[in-house]
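Case study: Probable nicotinate-nucleotide adenylyltransferase.
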Amino acid sequence: EDDRQAAGLRRRVGIMGGTFDPVHHGHLVAASEVADQFGLDEVVFVPTGHPWQKDATVSPAEDRYLMTVIATASNPRFSVSRVDVDRAGPTYTVDTLRDLRVAYGEKTELFFITGADALDRILSWKEADQLFELAHLIGVTRPGFKLSDAHLPADSVSLVQVPAMAISSTDCRERVSAGKAVWYLVPDGVVQYIAKRRLYV
Ligand code: ATP
Ligand code: MG
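Here is what the predicted structure looks like once written out:
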């Protein structure tokens, strides 16, 4: 990345927002694949504070933050931001992008990475038009998904197909609660953290 900056190129940073309750290999594969395809210098994982679209059964923000740190620690291009965890009130993506824009400076190009499920609803988000000005939008989808399925303008969003889309946090929580294993769906350290903190039982 020093070479890139020496050559006068802007730093390219991906932003992966999520509840991460828990973070799983679908998230990690998606971030890695997008970083590769878009030549990103860094991907920042941003666990939500209180997610406005989900109810109160979400695990404490500090647990979700720490699991995300554990899961990303070994990758030099992955980092975790506390902007949403530390901001009071519900989490809105437009606030996340504004905070990270300030933190990374005007010279950084931001790429907001989101799953196809959220792409469908993005126009209903707070200040949706602002989102497109603050960051490029990258939708991660399962093979076969078409942009027309999301009713978004084709030039505002790029699509990346990822192979691990079938993994979900909901399924991981249900497995733990049913006494089933989550090995290989989430990183080993996250398996151990879930057990240590008795999450989802
Ligand atoms: P839940 O089942 O609780 O909704 P989730 O697995 O969808 O959880 P989130 O924390 O809601 O995880 O997702 C964070 C971001 O990652 C979202 O943009 C979501 O669309 C995306 N995402 C979720 N699962 C995958 C996956 N398997 N592959 C790629 N992206 C994913
Ligand atoms: Mg989800």
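For the exam, be able to explain this: The radius of gyration is 17 Å.
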